[in-house]
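subagent[fold] <- orchestrator: predict structure for attached chain, return tokens only, no commentary.
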Amino acid sequence: MDAVRFDRQKHQFALEDHTEDDDVLESVGAPLSMIVQVTRRCVLRCSFCSESDEFPDPTTASLMTLRQKLRGIRRVYLSGGEPLLRQDIFDLLRAYHDDFEVVGLPTSCTTIDRSVAKRLGGLVHYINTGLDGPRATNDLVRGNYDGILRGILNLRDAGLEVSLSTVVLTRTLPYMPYVVQVADTLGATKVKMAFPVLRGRAKTLPESEITTKDETVRMFEKLVQLKKELGWRPSIKLALWDQNTEGYALLVYPNQQVYAWPVYGAPDGVMHVGDLSKQDLEQIWQAYPFKRNHINKYVGRTTYNG
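subagent[fold] -> orchestrator:
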């Protein structure tokens, strides 16, 4: 994987200078990044959740075995649901931290008090949480604004890096400047704007909540301009779901089935690409049909960056 390096400051991969597409595809023998769902249990009930179907939690032993199978990947997210609901999460994070270049933890932040924040120190490289606007807006679409802010403050005080994701809906779009201002105030490194993927609970979103690409790009451009004018420090990113990003993410479900996501036209928005209980990672990667989209997305080629 010499053609690709991880830029810790930008929280994304980068290509070495003058690297051609075909050279990258040939040199990358494993996914750059994978999302491992360690639970589907959650403390929130987000209106836009795409992973709301329930699964039994995988055992500690199965997740430790999975860790061995995932060697060769540069970055792993231990995701959910809410991963901090697992009693063994600190043991899992410690083990994965020792084996992977980058370990990320997506969390609602609402379960993070000072003691939890302190225990996370040295176990994760960065943490991502969601915020969708001021209290009333956030609580309508995600919930527990105050808990999210308390968790972020506890992480900041413990010296941990936090980035924010904000879901793009008609209801939330006007408040994106607020989200970036809060991110700047709290010392977050990044704000990522992302459209909902219409699966799971998100299937019930009213059509009136779905924004257009044009109005969302205009908001992104406004945020970049405001960043220059106001001196905001977080990077700002916008991810669009189109043919250039289709299937870019690899999700490992709690039952070790591997899916490409998002896949348009598929019955549930995902495509089954393998089974880590029966196959090794190389077999799954070789059969995976979205390699180019995967690489381009994770090196920032198909993301608006500001």
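orchestrator: received. Logging for downstream: The chain has a mean pLDDT of 92. The chain has ten helices and 13 strands.
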